[in-house]
Design goal:
The complex is a heterodimer of chains A (about 110) and B (about 110). Chain A is mostly beta strands and about 110 residues long. Chain A contains no helices and eleven strands. Chain A starts with a strand and ends with a strand. Helix content of chain B is about 0%, strand content about 60%.
């Protein structure tokens, strides 16, 4: 069966510091991968998606970037965090079929 | 782009009551999904609907894919305290998936 992991689960970072969040998927090959951000009590905002290694599409221009160095690894990065980057970051995967599955999330607090 | 309108935004109900929430769109989708999110966790898929008119149940949950392909509803029967959480609808059209803003459900014992 497929499993999706996110690391770390919780992160507190100062403004201006770099960021690296990791998402890995097990039990599947060549999935579509997604990064979402969820502000407190709000819905899901799609940040990036990838249909293959090295292929990244950005939905919202901002100081975040994403990379897919391996088939089942998706990384969300920033060179300098802003206060507004605080939120709950969710990775998700989907195959050619329709159903999308989410990881457990990373809670990021920027101080 | 396609937008989803999910309602209600929040519900406060008594344990044992039935719950109904829905999502509508001005555009058609070819898949509707319903998720539940507990605090501090990722959304978990509850029900997936793939055909217009489809009615699918998962325990006390029932969801339907609207005939027009522009709407879907989720019903929860005989609510229990662990039903508390945020419920999201999602609609997919080709490679594009959109999410509703969520319905926050509170169940009073």
């Amino acid at each position: 069966s497929q499993t999706i992991h996110q690391w770390p689960a919780t992160l507190v970072q100062p403004v201006g510091s770099p960021l690296s969040l990791e998402c890995t998927v097990e039990g599947t090959s060549n999935p579509n991968l997604y990064w979402y951000r969820q502000a407190a009590g709000r819905g899901l905002q799609l940040l990036f998606y990838s249909v293959g290694i090295g292929q990244i599409s950005s939905e919202v221009p901002q100081n975040l970037s994403a990379s897919r160095p391996q088939d089942r690894q998706f990384i969300l990065s920033s060179k300098k965090l802003l206060l507004s980057d605080s939120g709950f970051y969710l990775c998700a995967w989907r195959m050619d079929t329709d159903t999308q599955y989410f990881g457990p999330g990373t809670r990021l607090t920027v101080l | 782009g396609q937008q989803l309108n999910q309602s209600p935004q929040s519900m406060f109900i008594q344990e044992g009551e039935d719950v109904s929430m829905n999502c509508t769109s001005s555009s058609i989708f070819n898949t509707w999904l319903w998720y539940k999110q507990d605090p501090g966790e990722g959304p978990v898929l509850l029900i997936a609907l793939y055909k217009a008119g489809e009615l699918t149940s998962n325990g006390r949950l029932t969801a339907q894919f609207g005939i027009t392909r522009k709407d879907s509803f989720l019903n929860i029967s005989a609510s229990i305290p662990s039903d508390v959480g945020i419920y999201f609808c999602a609609g997919r059209w080709n490679n594009d998936m959109r999410f509703g803003a969520g319905t926050r459900l509170t169940v009073k014992p």
